[in-house]
Amino acid sequence: QLRLRSALALVTGAGSGIGRAVCERLACEGASVAACDLDAAAARETVRLLGSPESEEGAPGGKHAVFQADVSEARAVGRLLEQVQARFSRPPSVVVSCAGITRDEFLLHMSEEDWDRVVAVNLKGIFLVTQAAAQALVASGRHGSIINISSIIGKVGNLGQTNYAASKAGVIGLTQTVAKELGRHGIRCNSVLPGFIATPMTQKVPQKVIDKVTGMIPMGHMGSPEDVANVVAFLASEDSGYITGASVEVTGGLFM
Ligand code: NAD
């Protein structure tokens, strides 16, 4: 049974890693996917991988579509929601914010620029996307499910990641507050806290660190983007219809 048959899902960070796996999983559940990334070519490749022959960019009537936007810019996010609604004649009822970056440095040496950029993409970006999507849903009287990708690091911190940990902790608080404000509109909002997942983001982690962290994971191995996407699909579907404001950890037991 397809759990998301008539759903339209907007996914940011759709061009890589977890965002790409989320697009594939939601499409498998029957959703139309609006795949957004800063890197339009990467998002286009994701839509190609969804495999629907009519899913080329801009093709009228295609099941999926590609959008380019920098989620940290309010005007770009406003334009994104307008373009998605123009293309699909309705606002997205599933919104998954996967766009995220790291710029690691120890506190004693962290530049203001690295702090600002990580918070702008990881936290302000989620505020902008969540707000614009929620405004469109409330205006149209539709229900929805908003899923924000935080990180277990937002709960426990990590060496060299004051900017990243703060941004991800912020996403948890934002998500809980949105859940409280929008529950009466039939809009749920949950965050997912991945642990150590094998994606391009973690490819740059030195093998020594990978071995050390993997040794701390009860499940004994890194997670896959699909492990995260499966949980996102559950939160997007009515199977989780009474879950809102939750922070769901997908960590293989790391830092429980
Ligand atoms: P990734 O680097 O593979 O993918 C991130 C995507 O976001 C890229 O396609 C990139 O182009 C896009 N992006 C970056 N800045 C953007 C912007 N300003 N606007 C729009 N798109 C932008 O990373 P990933 O590992 O797939 O991570 C996805 C999310 O999961 C991130 O929020 C990340 O913090 C979070 N996360 C990842 C892990 C992990 O171990 N990989 C763990 C916890 C949380």
From TrEMBL:
Gene this chain is encoded by: HSD17B8
Keyword set, alphabetical order: Fatty acid biosynthesis, Fatty acid metabolism, Lipid biosynthesis, Lipid metabolism, Mitochondrion, NAD, Oxidoreductase, Phosphoprotein, Steroid biosynthesis
InterPro entries documented for this protein: KR_dom, NAD(P)-bd_dom_sf, Sc_DH/Rdtase_CS, SDR_fam
Catalysed transformations (reactions): testosterone + NAD(+) = androst-4-ene-3,17-dione + NADH + H(+); a (3R)-3-hydroxyacyl-CoA + NAD(+) = a 3-oxoacyl-CoA + NADH + H(+); 17beta-hydroxy-5alpha-androstan-3-one + NAD(+) = 5alpha-androstan-3,17-dione + NADH + H(+); 17beta-estradiol + NAD(+) = estrone + NADH + H(+)
One Pfam short name: adh_short_C2
Principal EC category: oxidoreductase
An example Gene Ontology molecular-function term: quinone binding
Domain Ketoreductase: 7-200
Pathway involvement of the protein, from the record: Steroid biosynthesis; estrogen biosynthesis; Lipid metabolism; fatty acid biosynthesis; Lipid metabolism; mitochondrial fatty acid beta-oxidation
NCBIfam families: PRK12826.1-2
Name listed for the protein in its UniProt record: (3R)-3-hydroxyacyl-CoA dehydrogenase
